[in-house]
Amino acid sequence: MKFVAQALGLSEPAARKLEDRNILREAVIKHPFFADIIEAYNLEKKFGAYEEGTLIAKTNNSLEVIRGYPKIRRALVLYPTLKKHFKGEVAIEEKMNGYNVRIVKMGSNLYAVTRRGFICPYTTEKARLVFEMDFFRDNPHLMLCCEAVGDESPFVPKDIYGSGVHFYVFDIRVKKTNEPLGVREKEKVAEEYGFRLAPILEFADVKRAHEAVIEAVEKLGRQGREGVVIKDVSMKRPPVKYTTSQSNCSDLSYAFRYFNEYARDFMISRIVREAFQSFEFKESEEEFRQRCLRLGESILRPMVESIRDVKEKGRVAEKSKLRFYNLEVFELFKEHLRRMGVDARFSEPAEDNGSYIVFMERYMMSTTDKISNLLKGGFW
Fold it and tell me: Where does the record place the RNA ligase Pab1020 C-terminal domain (predicted)?
């Protein structure tokens, strides 16, 4: 704990208090796969200037503070919000639908840090296969903020991005301060080192940015994609996000599939987004009717599917296909999920051209138990 106090500029008793209050949590599993890291903790909540998900690590030769990724605020009505928030030119960037990771070099190896500040073995293995070390040797103070997407994601599997797990860089930031590179500087670095960037759809003056965003969102929605992030090109002002109707409904569908775990948290915000988007887009009566049908189906259909699953199979589970290149990483990942409180079952690994395919079932016990009780005559 002494190293945490030193890294954050605290006294040791103050650092201990953070641990006692469950704000600090152990963030890495001790194993040779994480050979550079002696100890690591994350911040479960925002603390002072440090964001939730900040990682504090003691490595073989240094102390590392990997700042948590800042929360991005959401626009509900585009025109007044963008005009009020931004000045001059903005970049309209696709918001990829995956999970947020920061790729950093600590010691001799690369590590993937999740949004909550844990070092994920599965994602770390993929990152080491994808990213060369030259960028990190040239820029040891920087981190790559990426969206990990694809159909082999353990957290947000989506087949629209193709097979496997792919990393799209959306920000490049200073590890210790979170200061971002400007959008055009990020593009230049990505070209130099061969990174995939989250697509920048358009640069626009803020006076017409809302029109450009509406056009982009309507097109992305038809493709089943998530939405956009609007960024000040200098990154001096915080970004703003805006999602498609299809993404809102997809979120609702997921939440109501496992309604006793997630529905309350997801429902109101997504329905409110739909209402304001419908109003601002000036929909025809038919377009509005289609939105209503889409919204209703995203709520009711997944709940009925879950009821059927409990009746016929005895449980509700989320299924994912994963690929490992080292079976030790598979064992590490199982332990990682256990520490996260995730109840999951795995198939036996099956060899596939030098890798191993594993199918994971994450049991949703709260929804399963609730449906089972109701089907047996219980009360709501």
Answer: 254-378
Q: Which domains does the chain have, with CATH numbers?
A: 2-66+97-197 (3.30.470.30), 73-94+201-243 (3.30.1490.70), 246-305 (1.20.58.2250), 317-375 (3.30.70.2160)
Write the DSSP string, 289-315.
HHHHHHHHHHHHHHHHHHHHHHHHHS-
Rg (CA), the chain: 22
User: Environment class of residue 314 by beta-carbon count within 10 Å: exposed (0-12), middle (13-18) or buried (19+)?
Assistant: exposed
Whether 362 and 342 have beta carbons less than 8 Å apart is answered as yes
Q: How far is CA 157 from CA 166, 209, 238, 256, 331, in A?
A: 11, 31, 28, 17, 20
Distance CA 309, CA 229 (A): 37
Tokens of 115: 């949004």
DSSP state of 190: H
